Amino acid sequence: MSTFLGLIKEIPGISVDRFDGDNLTSSVFFLSHCHTDHMQGLTDAFFEYIQSSDKYIYCSPVTKALLENKFRHKSHCIKEIDVNRPTVIEYRTRNDDAIVVSVTAVSAGHCPGSVMFLFERDTVSVLYTGDFRINPKDLSKLKALHYSGQSKLIPRTFTKIYLDTTFLSNDYVSFPTRQESIVKICQVSKDWLGKDPRNVVILECSALYGSEFLYIELSNMLNMKIHVRDCVYEIYCRIAQLSCHVTNEPCSTRIHACKRKISSPGLHCGVDASNENIMTIIPSILKWRNKDTSVVGEWDDVKPRTFNVCYSTHSSLDELKAFVQYFHATEIYPCVVKTEEASVTYDLLEKIRDQSDEQVTVNPTYRLSLSRRKVSRRVPFKSEYFSSDDESS
Ligand SMILES: [Zn+2]
Ligand SMILES: [Zn+2]
Fold it and tell me: Which residues belong to any copy of the DNA repair metallo-beta-lactamase domain (predicted)?
């Protein structure tokens, strides 16, 4: 859950992922993705306010489509920005200072439409990651976050990174890649469906958005669409990459992601399946806290015919380490800090930074200053293609 309050203090007049309180004094707004903890204050009243003040909210094209579905007739307040291409925005702050900022949206691999924002103004460059999960192998493919050298790309230096620290914790050191989790889910689904023609699979996914890549892969592999609730179907139909993998006809498929998380056992969408014919797959990460995540999936100890799979849309501790050690930043701000674990989060972040450069200096007020690393110490990430861990844009 994001605890970031919205204002990017290095660049006056902009707010990201918070739309209440002091943020209302901002001149320009950005939304990284459509999860409710990043949409606080985003209401009809907010849209009326920005409409009357001639202000806009910027987001990726997919996020715009999702927003339009929620806020009908507000399209004129929402501007989409292309992914990977800088967009220049000029505005005046409430003190009437004229500001020119360049913003580049970069795919964040978290859920459909999720992006990071790179803000650049004069000598200041700020990377706001939003929620993200990017396979370390793919960091070198984030072209917009690199300088282009003579023959190779060099990871950029940022003034500050606002970092998704959801799993910056020793309880979540490493996760299987999403591809590994999906392969496991496909395997158990295929086995179950092959056993008996009456068998069906229920996918119990927690967030409204975040499991879509799983739907696409599963649907491709089993050659079957995924049944989702009508309200979700309506939204997915707006996203080209998704629409052909989901259905609103329950009896046309044997894979169902149509249940709300908390509900009584069984299917409630009109499909006639007895409990013995239903297998439930729960992709989740919380069940794997402090557990061996090399075991990608296992049967539930308590619930019958229930298979738990380790699946995350946020970066693990190891992935966060790889990210902050690959890119350079003078300061890092953790965007997810639980009050009771604040000191642990800060300590861990400092430790990660320590490992990335011997010359790190740590200010007790928690400002991490980091000298520029030598190029030779950069972790060599290689990948031929953008892995399945980044399909959100
Ligand atoms: Zn999120
Ligand atoms: Zn169903």
Answer: 242-337
pTM of the predicted model over 0.90: no
Question: Looking at the predicted structure, is the pLDDT value of residue 198 above 90?
Answer: yes
Distance 273 CA to ligand 1 centre (A): 33
pLDDT per residue over 246-296, tens digit each? 999 999 999 999 987 666 777 888 888 899 999 999 999 988 898 888 889
By percentage, how much of the chain surpasses pLDDT 70?
89
Query: How far does the centroid of ligand 2 lie from the alpha carbon of residue 259, in Å?
Result: 7
Q: What is the DSSP string of 339-384?
A: GGGHHHHHHHHHHHHHHH-TT-EEETTTEEE-PPPPGGGS-----S
Ligand 2 centroid vs 262 CA: distance in angstroms?
15
Tokens representing 337 are 């800090």
CA of 199 to the centre of ligand 2 (A): 13
Ligand sitting nearest the alpha carbon of 204: 2
Pairs from 237-245 (Cβ < 8 Å, separation ≥ 24): 238/65, 238/66, 238/68, 238/69, 239/62, 239/65, 239/112, 239/113, 239/212, 241/112, 241/216, 241/391, 242/112, 242/212, 242/215, 242/216, 245/215, 245/216, 245/219, 245/220
Q: Cα separation of 288 and 297, whole Å?
A: 10
Residue 95 buriedness (CB in 10 A; 0-12 / 13-18 / 19+): exposed
State the distance from the centre of ligand 1 to the C-alpha of 246, rounded, in angstroms: 21
| pLDDT for res 351 | 87
Residue 377 has pLDDT above 80, yes or no: no
